[in-house]
Each structure stands twice: as C-alpha cells, then as structure tokens.
Amino acid sequence: MSEAVTDLLLALPEVRVLLTCRSVPGPSALLARAWRDGELRRIEVPELTPSETAEFSAAMLPGRPFAPDTISRLHQSTGGNPLFLAELIGALERAGALEDRHGLRVWPGSLPAGTSLHDVLRAEIGRLPSDERTAFETAALCSPAPLHLLDASIPPDPLERLLEKEVVRIVYRADGRPVLELAHPIYGETAETMLNPVRIRQQYRALYDRAVEPLITEDLERTTGGGTIPTEDLLTVVDWGLHGDREVPLELLEPAFRFASPLVDHEFRVRIASALLRRPGLDPPLRIAALVNRLEAFRYLGDPEAVTADEAAARALIETMPAGAERTRLAADLAIAFADAAVLMAGRWEDAIVALGWADRLGAEGPSEAAAAAAIRVEAQRGIALCYGGEMVAAAELERRLSDATAGTPGFLPFAPTAILLHGQRGETRQARQIARQQLRFAVQAAADYPLAAGEIIGVWCLVDVFSGHSREAVFIYGAMEQAIARGAGGPRLRETVVSFGRGLLALMQGDWARASEHLAIACSELDDFTGTGSEGLLLASLALAQAANGDLDGARATRARIAGWTTGTSRLLDVPSRYHLLLARLWAPDGTERAEAEAIARRAREYGFGLMELRALHAAQLCGGAPLAPDQLARADELGSGLAAPIAPLLAQHIAQLRAPAREDAADTARRLARRGMFVPTPRHPALTVREQHVAELVSLGYSNTQIAKRLQNSRRTVETHVARILMKLGVGSREAVADALDASRWDDAETAS
C-alpha cells in the first residue's frame, strides 16, 4: 500500500516528494526504479563530522554555544548519526541535563534514563535475529576489544551481518591490529539497560573463559617483556575476569596490575588492586604496592575516606618489614602518594608533612644509598606541600638544597613545576628557565612514569614568561606546550582545559579580551579537572579579568563571587597572581576599595618572597589613583625595578614614578611599552564609547595600525576604519595620536573621582 501511494505521488506533477531511506536494508524496488528513471534524485547523507555535529547542535539549541568537550561527547556517543544526535540533544534538554557554565552548555553526566532515544535504540536492537542480538550484546559489553580475542565468542556469520547493518565496525590500530567496536557507542548504554546484572555477569564469564586459556598456555615471561602477546590483550582478558567475578590466576593478575598502575582508568585500577588484596598469602611488598596504587586511584575518584583507610593499612604493613632498601622505597612511595592526595583533595598539607617525616625516619634505618634516593623524592614532595600551605620561603630554601643534590637525576621532577613558579614569581627568570630546560629532558626520559610532566613544565615555563613580560617567548613556549600535551597521556578533557587556559592567557597578554574570554570560558567549563590543584583560582581570576576588560561586568562579578572567600583546599602558590588578576578585573570598574586590596597583595607577596608579584601589586596600587605611594613603598619599587631580572620590572617601576608626578609626563608612553610586554593598564570605558569602540581606541592609543587592529580583532580593515572614524568624532579629537590623551584624561578623572 505504501509503495502504491508513493508511486501515485511521484506521478503527480504538482507534488514534490522527499523520501528518506536507510542504507540497510536499502531502497525498495520501486525507489530503485524511480531513481534509475530520474524521478528521484539521490542525496547521500554521511555521518556528521565533529564540526558538523557542533553546527547541528547549535541549530537545535541556539543561544548559548556548547562546550568543546560536550560536542566531542555528543559526536562520540552518536557516531555522527543525525537521528541519534537529534534524539540525544532533545533528551538532555528535556531532562535538564545540560548545565550552564560561564555561558557554555556542558553535559557533565550520563544519558538520562527513560528517554525516547533509548526507545529508538531498543527497537533497533529488538529487531535483530537472536544470533545477531547475542553477538551484539557481547560486542556492546566489551567494545572496543581486539578482534582475535572474540573469535571464540562471536560466530563469523552474525558478526558479518552486524557489520553489513553498520551496527558494529572494525577499525585498525596504529600497529595494524583489528579492533571491534560499536558503530555508535551510545548502543552500549542502551544494551546495558536491557541486560540485568546476572546476564551481564554471565556474558563476562563466558568471554573470560574462552579467552583466558590461550594466555595461560603462552610464555608469560615473554608477554610481560613485550613478546608475542600484547599488553592490551592481557589487560582486556583480566578485566573480563574481574567483571565476571572469576578467580584470575596470579600469574595473569600480577603483570596486569603492573601494566595498569599508570593508567588513567582509575576505576579499573581500583578493581585490579582490590582483586590482588583479596588474595590470601600475598607477598607484603606486592600487597603494599596494591594499597598505594589503589590509594592514588581513590584520590582521583574523590574518595578521601578510602585514601585514609588504605594509607593506614599500608603503613602498618611497612612498619612490620625489616629495615632495608625495599622498606625504604615502599615507605617513600606511600608517603608521596598520601601527601599528594592530602593536599589536592582537602588542602591538608600539615598531614602531608607528617607522613613525609615518617618516611624519612624509616628511610634513615635502611641502607644509605637507598635512603639518599628516597630522601630526594620525599623532599621534592615536601616542597610541594609547603607551597600548598603558603610556606614559600621554606619551600624556596628547600629547592636550593635539592638543586645540587638532584643534578643529573629525575628525582626532582615532581617538584619542578612548583620550583619554576617559585622562581618566576620571585622575578628570578634565569633560574626558572634553567630548571625548566634541565627537568624537561628528564620528563621526556621518564614519560612512562610521569606522562604529563613535560606538558606541566612547559606550561609553567610559559606562565613565568607571562609574569615577567617575555611576551614573544611566551608565545613560542606555549606552542611547544600544546604539542607536548597533544602527544602525551592524560584525559582529553584535561588536555582541552590546559590548552584553552594557555590560549586565554596569551590572549590576555595581547589585549584580545574577546578571544581571552572565549578560551578561558572553555577552560572553566571543565573546571573539574583543575579542582584543588591551585590553578583553579588563577583560571577563574583570569576569566574575570577578561570579562571585565571586554565590558562584561556582570559576568566578571559572577566569576569573582564564585571564588570569593577561598581559604582552604587550594594551593597558595598561585594565590598572589590570582588575587592580582582579580584586582585588575576590578580596576576596569573601580569602586574605591581597590587600593587597600593592592597594598594587601603587595604585603602578601613580600611575605612569600615574590619580588616580581610585589612590584606588580605596588604598580596596581598606584594605578588606583589617590595619594602617591608612601616613601618606603616607592623605595621598595625602585629597588625591585632595578634588582629583578624580569624585563617588565624596570617599566613597572618607571610607570609608578610617572603616575605620581603631577603632570604624569610620559606615563602614556610607558603604558604602551608595558602593553608590548603583555601588561595592559586597565582603562575604565569612556562614557561616549561602546565596548568595541573602547577596545579599538585602546589599540589605537598603543600605536597599532588599522591593519594590525583588524588582524587582532579578526575584523575587516573597512570595519576598523569605520570604528576609528566614530572614535575620533565621539572623543572630539582630530588625530590618532590624540586618542591616547583623551583616554588617559578620562581615566585620571575617574580615578580622582573615586579617591
């Protein structure tokens, strides 16, 4: 009947027919004939690309853009299928599962239950013949998995039919090995809702039972040494056994545990370590290693009670061991893991210091060579804990002691990013760069143990260049950081956050407030990756600065309110630059309280020994207007300006002296030189100008040509010329050179009114 109606409609000249046809099972005979005869024109609809997924999503829910990570999740979950994507976005919107973070839509959780998308997928799965459905359920549970491990579990005939129906697909890894995966990963979530826990357990048991025997009969010594059986096969089969509650042989479980220790799949690390700990008679060193690894995984999973329990159990075992190199190493491993968890999860840096002291005492009872190697690692972690607690002077002294002791060894590596930031805020850029170059070499050598170390070192190196005014060097170093992170391990969300953070900071250095707001909002939308790390405060403060400079004062106030009153749980290492960026944000719309905050930041920076940040804070205090700095403050600014190696330091001191002069002679020229070093003097918006005109006027006042402004703002030159003409008319000036004087006069008038 449907074909007869379609045939009739095709014959009517006044009717336009639009039909959709799925590639499986394909067109009917009628449609094929109509296409052959030219009555229908075929339009291929391929899978959406990631960029098309973003465009499609924005069209469905206009207004606020989707965060890049959310677009990636939508694309990955639906495999680019437009129908699935439309249903998924609709389900998320109806369930209120999309959060608004800094103007971006973020999907932080899983697919809500009871959605129409599940109904669509269940109908698809339900139409499969029984043998295909069984094969599909197996693939859904273990996807992706090496194809050869499934030879005994999925017969070739139903697998071939599933491939034809585009339910599953085969992809090839870099080494040429075929891997079976679902065509649309969202099938997996639906399949799990259709299987009860008993059925899932049986499926995993069947997978494990069929695949484990070949592994046991192979030479495991060759396997763990990189022989014929790949590590991925071992981890996959062991994971099936753990899901199926099988008693995995220790000769498989132990090497799998060693391989899984550095993975970012923390739930798998907990499962495999827990399986080891359930084994009676396990050697104490292996039991301790399992406890330490599970402790680290619990830290990433945000379970402080489990961290504390595993630390106590491991400590009790270590204390029963005889003194020796092994006990010294294990004590250092435990103390470092617990200290890292204590400061990152709850800011308990005092507990971290106590645990590290315990490791020192046990290490002193062991062989001197082992004690010396462990002491370096423990001291490096102690330096990190001291910085989290705000003991910057003590941390700097510790860093100096370690520098000589660690020359030529990677033991200093975990402390390297912290040490680089210490020197950078002190204005000791030469020392910061020396440490960065030396430790970057070790980070490459130790990439297996510290997969993100190279990216972290280059990232803080870039940040130090931002602090010190090495604007061109910062751009170059950031490019290296982006490449290092792209090649390194770690979650893609973390990489997206770090890259967006770096792009936002560089845009701030260039005065490109709109682009800075865009990139920093993307980084903040995935703030879970930075919670408790200390970078969280600086990230939000930088966003507030970009928003305020871009004229979004309401957004800046909301961002500032989010971090107001933080006192625990985050590192004090970036406390001063975070407060400094917040202060600059407030200077774009001053309320008269900024001077006191600037002087408080200067006092805190001096307490920490951060000379460069102290000079920046003194400069900000003078920018607030009012009375000149006190004589002792001026003397201190002169001392820092002439004594610090940072290229921005003498300019800051010079600008302070010019700002306190009655006529403020040459202050505007120094402001332009500061801008070329990445320091844009906050200028409250001129009442006659729009936000965009204010931005263009600032760039004109800094000496940029229309072509340079157009490139920076990604506008046409004609648009910029129009803006400049309006600016000259509104300010009542006749030349580009007079724009700077008009803006300066407005700023000084505002500052004196506020004072």
Task: Please give a structural write-up.
It is built from 38 helices and five strands. With 755 residues, it is mostly helical. Helix 6 packs across helix 9 and helix 31 (611-623) packs parallel to helix 33. The model is unreliable at 219-227 and 750-755 (pLDDT under 50). Strands 3-5-4 form a three-stranded antiparallel β-sheet. Strands 1-2 form a two-stranded antiparallel sheet.
Detail the poorly predicted runs: 219-227, 750-755
Spatial order of the strands forming the largest sheet: 3-5-4
Question: Would you report the number of β strands?
Answer: 5
Helix percent reads 55-70%
Instruction: Count every helix, treating DSSP H or I runs of 4 or more residues as helices.
Output: 38
- Which class best fits the helix and strand makeup? mainly alpha
Taking the sheet with the most strands, its summary is:
3 strands, antiparallel
Please compute the radius of gyration using only Cα atoms.
31 Å
Determine the strand fraction and express it as a percent band. Answer: under 5%
Query: What is the global morphology?
Result: flat
What's the mean pLDDT score?
85
End-to-end separation: 84 Å
List keywords for this structure.
755 residues, mainly alpha, 3-stranded antiparallel beta sheet, two-stranded antiparallel sheet, 38 helices, 68% helix, flat, disordered C terminus
Outline of the structure:
The chain is mainly alpha-helical and 755 residues long. The protein has 38 helices and five strands. The C terminus is likely disordered.
